[in-house]
């Protein structure tokens, strides 16, 4: 006599699981813009435009299931550039419909673990399968990048040897690495696509870099981790999109169990109010938070100084930069 209610309950549970998996709840909850289906998200970028995707907008080593580790994809001129490779970057790429083997250039802001910990997956899994990488993985970053990548190749030497030389016979070039320790200045200039590294101030973590990407009159600057940096203002002035880190100092203090350490962390970063002041000085067409909490309080802090277009920290937000700037969300 209880079979029918149980059956209905089971069907309802299955429907809920399917809806969650397909991202229907995300679409229903977000009235700002309907999420892009994954196939649409991976469509070609217009010839004269830049596309920016926040793969991971979170901060710090702790696991955050809503905001993955720091990682931003920039696409232009048929090229894909990955800035930082924090936890979950390859998962977010896959959710965006982008084969991880198609990402062969990585730019690191600094060598904190939360900005680099997904590189092994990009290196190894990006080499495998029909869309696997057949050319070297190129990595640019601060002093120590070459040593880190060399050690990574040694760490996975067994797996690399078996897949390259014994079993699958995968292309040798696809698992090789070309890494570069950089200084401030233009580090890539190819087919109208230019990447410029500039020094920022991340306290004792030195050197630390931000990046500016220019393509056919469109531009985006990425702060990396930094406290207020006059050098960033200098290099970012005039960009279409400025992506900047931030901390909610009040929230950190309220949750702190070690006030001295909390103040030390805050001192290495930019507060919401300070970020608002930077946005007001740089005057981008769109300001964006990343490596920041997804927080209305943070937006409110920036709004005390900045009245322009502002996008909060959120994973799988895609920004197309052309005559217009279009912001959309990828269903996941």
Unreliable segments of 5+ consecutive residues:
1-32
Beta-sheet strand percentage?
Answer: 25-35%
The total domain count is 2
Q: C-alpha Rg, in Å?
A: 21 Å
**CATH homologous superfamily annotation of the largest domain:** Ribonuclease Z/Hydroxyacylglutathione hydrolase-like
Helices, by number, come to: 12
As an assembly, this protein is single chain
Fraction of residues in helices?
A: 25-40%
Average predicted local confidence, pLDDT: 90
How far do the termini sit from each other? 40 Å
Q: Can you describe this structure?
A:
- The protein folds into 2 domains: 31 residues; 295 residues, Ribonuclease Z/Hydroxyacylglutathione hydrolase-like (Metallo-beta-lactamase, Chain A), CATH 3.60.15.10.
- A hairpin with a 3-residue loop joins strand 15 and strand 16.
- The chain is α/β, with parallel strands linked by helices and 332 residues long.
- The two termini are 40 Å apart.
- It contains 12 helices and 16 strands.
- The strands form 2 sheets. The chain has a 9-stranded mixed sheet. The protein has a 7-stranded mixed sheet with strand order 8-9-10-11-12-13-14, with helices on one face.
- The N terminus is likely disordered.
- It is globular.
Key attributes of the depicted protein:
disordered N terminus, Metallo-beta-lactamase, Chain A, nine-stranded mixed beta sheet, seven-stranded mixed beta sheet, 2 domains
List the helices and strands and how they pair.
Elements: H1 3-21, H2 24-29, E1 35-36, H3 38-41, E2 50-56, E3 71-76, E4 79-83, H4 89-95, E5 105-107, H5 119-125, E6 137-141, H6 145-155, H7 157-166, E7 177-181, E8 185-190, E9 193-202, E10 205-215, E11 218-222, H8 230-236, E12 241-244, H9 249-255, H10 259-267, H11 272-282, E13 286-289, H12 296-303, E14 310-311, E15 317-321, E16 325-330
Parallel strand pairs: 1-16, 4-5, 5-6, 6-7, 11-12, 12-13, 13-14
Antiparallel strand pairs: 2-3, 2-15, 3-4, 8-9, 9-10, 10-11, 15-16
């Amino acid at each position: 006599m209880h079979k029918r209610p149980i059956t209905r309950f089971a069907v309802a549970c299955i429907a809920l699981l399917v809806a969650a998996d397909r991202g229907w709840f995300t679409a229903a909850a977000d009235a700002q813009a309907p999420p892009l289906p994954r196939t649409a998200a991976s469509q070609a970028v217009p010839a004269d435009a830049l596309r920016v995707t926040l793969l991971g907008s979170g901060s710090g080593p702790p696991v955050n299931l809503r905001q993955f580790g720091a990682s931003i994809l920039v696409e232009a001129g048929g090229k894909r550039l990955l800035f930082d490779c924090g936890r979950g970057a390859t998962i977010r790429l896959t959710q965006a419909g982008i084969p991880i083997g198609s990402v062969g250039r990585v730019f690191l802001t600094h060598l904190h673990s939360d900005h680099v910990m997904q590189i092994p997956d990009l290196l190894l899994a990006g080499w495998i399968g029909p869309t696997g990488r057949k050319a070297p993985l190129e990595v640019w970053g601060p002093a120590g990048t070459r040593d880190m990548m060399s050690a990574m190749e040694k760490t996975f030497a067994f797996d690399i040897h078996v897949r390259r030389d014994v079993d699958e016979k995968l292309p040798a070039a696809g698992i090789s690495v070309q890494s570069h320790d950089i200084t401030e200045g233009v580090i890539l200039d190819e087919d109208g696509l230019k990447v410029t590294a500039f020094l920022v101030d991340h306290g004792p973590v030195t050197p630390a870099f931000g990046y500016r990407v220019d393509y056919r009159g469109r531009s985006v600057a990425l702060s990396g981790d930094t406290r207020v940096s006059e050098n960033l203002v200098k290099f970012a002035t005039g960009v279409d999109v400025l992506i900047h880190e931030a901390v909610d100092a009040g929230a950190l203090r309220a949750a702190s169990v070690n006030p001295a350490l909390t103040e030390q962390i805050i001192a290495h970063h930019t507060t919401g109010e300070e970020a608002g002041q930077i946005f007001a000085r740089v005057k981008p067409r769109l300001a964006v938070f990343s490596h920041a909490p997804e927080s209305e309080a943070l937006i409110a802090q920036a709004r005390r100084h900045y009245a322009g277009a502002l996008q909060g920290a959120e994973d799988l937000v895609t920004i197309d930069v052309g005559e217009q700037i279009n912001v959309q969300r990828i269903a996941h």
